[in-house]
Amino acid sequence: QWLSDRKKRALQKKDVDIRRRIELIQDFEMPTVSTKIKVSRDGQYIMAVGTYKPRIRCFDTYQLSQKFERCLDSEVVTFEILSDDYSKIVFLECGRFVEFHSQHGHYYRTRIPKFGRDFSYHYPSCDLYFVGASSEVYRLNLEQGRFLNSLQTDASESNVCDINPVHFLFAMGTAEGKVECWDPRTRSRVGLLDCALSSVTADAEIDGLPSVSALKFDGALNMAVGTSTGQVLLYDLRSSNPLIVKDHHYGLPIKSIQFQPQLDLIISADSRIVKMWNRDTGKIFTSMEPEYDINDVCLYPNSGMLMTANEAPKMNIYYIPVLGPAPKWCSFLDNLTEELEENPESTVYDDYKFVTRKDLENLGLAHLIGSSLLRAYMHGFFMDIRLYHKAKMMANPFAYEEYRREKIRQKIEETRAQRVQLKKLPKVNKELALKLIEEEGEEQQVTRKRKQKNLPSLLKDDRFKVMFENPDFQVDEQSEEFRLLNPLVSKISEKRKRKLKLLEELEAEQQEEEEEPEGKASDAESSESSDDEKGWVEEVRKQRKLLRQEEKVKRQERFKEDQQTLLKPQFFEIKEGEEFRSFKDSAKKQKLMKKTLGDRLKLEEKLGTLNVSDTTVGSKQATFKLKKSEQQKKQQEAEKQHRQERKTLRRSASHLKSKRGRGRLFH
After folding, report:
1. How many Å apart are CA 120 and CA 142, to the nearest integer?
2. What are the Acidic residues biased-composition ranges (predicted)?
């Protein structure tokens, strides 16, 4: 799609597959966006409306090309084909206009009182029912050429409407999430469905009140309702509860609902995805997610072809052979699909390289994102293969040398595989690993004889991997527990130690001389192990004697260390403002702290620091006197002495004043 015309022509000359590529309908597209797409009842004409400028295009399937194009004054909300061919069409436009077209072109134009959102045609009475931003349903009779009395509903606004093709019941979906059903003969409401309440399921997350965004009848009794929150509800008109509720899980309004009777499928679409699912079980049959947002879906009648109007110039055509045969005007599609199934071929892009964002950062080309040198595709980009090779050479000029070294290393490894392989033991718990290898070899011999399944090895098990890597798991063979639990291990461990030394020597020789060893050292000694009870008891006794001797030696060493250590005096620091009396006070405090609360209270009452009395209410009142420290007592005595001195000074001063007054009176 993003190649220039010149490159396309060059590719057509080179590539046979591109020359064979088919285009079902020539120029099946709109200038910018397509909004609605429908097929005439005879199946010969496909009509689509879009922008910009607002227009309608009619495509003739017999000629596989466009038949005519007409421009309109305002954008089309929806349209309906009244005749079997393209001779009678009605358009509902944005500016409250209703426009009629005949075979030759524009025929008549009128206006409705409020903005319309959808309309349906009632064939028996030739009435058009318009719903929109109003509580009324406007009726326009095409036989008389005038508006009739409108239907007054309980809804504030209506979004969609449809008429049953069997018994002509008129249904409309409201903004409050309800469906009102009306009988056109009596012009009265005959039913009301609350779809908003039924669409709320236990696992659904709904932000607001769901409104009805799509409505479609199937036969006389079935009706499918789509909500603005992404749920599709299938109803039987005889019941107010839905038969099944299907959630798209995108939270986007349902834009179109179609029925596929051959396989009992429902095709529902929102702006992001088209889902096909079984109407009985709700199981997904298949789904399609186009590159651009979907505006409308049209199923070609009695076939497996599906067409979509998108937020893009090109209108998509899908052919699914399982749904039905190809239409008669493109019956060659059946043969092509059979050939494709017999000879599946993968498409290879020779001139372009697919790279991810991480690859671009490694090559230092992240700044090219958004330029014409990179074409966004899926989770990465397409770039010219020549540019990719140049950038790779600049980013890593020694790539060929590394590739050459890797190939040489692989060849050497292949030759080494033919040599006699030495057993590589882990760094931690080597003796335990050697023991497990020996036991594994013995078990394999037994299982071969008995034809049993081999048990998994501990060395290859990831759960015990750390035991042979982490030095914290090293088995201490000198510990008391190990020696008492494994008294006979000492003899076998000596043989294993010899074997380990031989293996280490062989590994060292192999590292020094990268040559193939002629053979592997075998242990000449027999691996005999005494399993007699008598030998086991004697070995346990020996180990216990050794442990006792070791304990005696340790005790003597500790005793010598204790004798050598000299006792050093300890000094304690007294806090400021406190006097050291004796250690008896601290002992008294400790004894007092050990007593219970009741005993301490009794002691405080005896000393006079606590006073407990009964109140009039019946409760107890306790009065405490805080103990004073020596520093506080000294301070209080100093303050008391200071007050007494001030009193004596005041008395002497008053005495002198009185004497002076008497002397003056005498003079």
Report:
1. 13
2. 507-517
Backbone angles phi, psi at 355, to 5 degrees: -130, 150
Inside any domain, residue 515: no
Which pLDDT band, with edges at 50, 70 and 90, does 469 fall under? confident
Q: How far apart are CA 134 and CA 114, in angstroms?
A: 7
Cα distance between residue 246 and residue 248, in whole Å:
7
Q: Measure the CA dihedral 220/221/227/231, to 10°.
A: -130
Instruction: For residue 29, give the DSSP letter.
Output: B
Among 301, 320, 342, residue at a domain's last position:
342
CA distance 302 to 331: 13
Q: Which two tokens stand for residue 182?
A: 């009306």
100: which 2 tokens? 């009629």
CA distance linking residue 599 with residue 253, whole number of Å? 80
| CATH (domain of 317) | 2.130.10.10
Nearest to 179 by CA among 169, 187, 168: 169
635 domain-assigned: no
pLDDT in tens, 140-191: 999 999 999 999 999 999 999 999 999 999 999 999 999 999 999 999 999 9
pLDDT, tens digit, 9 for 90 and up, residues 208-245? 789 999 999 998 999 999 999 889 999 999 998 999 99
Which residue intervals of 167-229 are DSSP H helices? Answer: 195-199
In the structure encoding, which two tokens stand for residue 170, read together?
């008129």
In angstroms, rounded to a whole number, what is the distance separating the alpha carbons of residues 650 and 642? Answer: 13
The DSSP output letter for 228 is: T
Residues 94, 219, single domain; the answer is yes
Q: Are residues 359 and 220 in the same domain?
A: no
Count: domains in the chain: 2
Q: Are residues 104 and 158 in the same domain?
A: yes
Residues 315 and 364 placed together within one structural domain of the fold: no
- Whether the pTM exceeds 0.70: the reply is no
Q: Is residue 273 part of a domain?
A: yes
Residue 417 lies in a domain: no
Residue 574 token pair = 């007294």
Q: What is the DSSP letter of 410?
A: H
Kind and range of the H or E run holding 432? helix 430-450
Q: Are 233 and 371 within one domain?
A: no
- Confidence label for 515 from pLDDT (cuts 50, 70 and 90): very low
CB 603 within 8 A of CB 591: no
Q: What is the CB neighbour count within 10 angstroms for residue 80? A: 16
Residues 356, 326: one domain? no
Same domain, 269 and 381: no
Q: Are residues 304 and 371 in the same domain?
A: no
Residue at a domain's end among 395, 430, 460: 395
**For residues 277 and 282, what is the distance between their CA atoms, to the nearest angstrom?**
6
Enclosing domain of residue 244: 22-342
The helix (run of H) or strand (run of E) holding residue 377 is: strand 375-377
> Residue 288's Cα: distance from chain center in Å?
21
Q: What share of the chain is helix, strand, coil (3-state, %, to 5)?
A: 35, 25, 40
Least confident of 81-95, 291-305, 478-492: 478-492
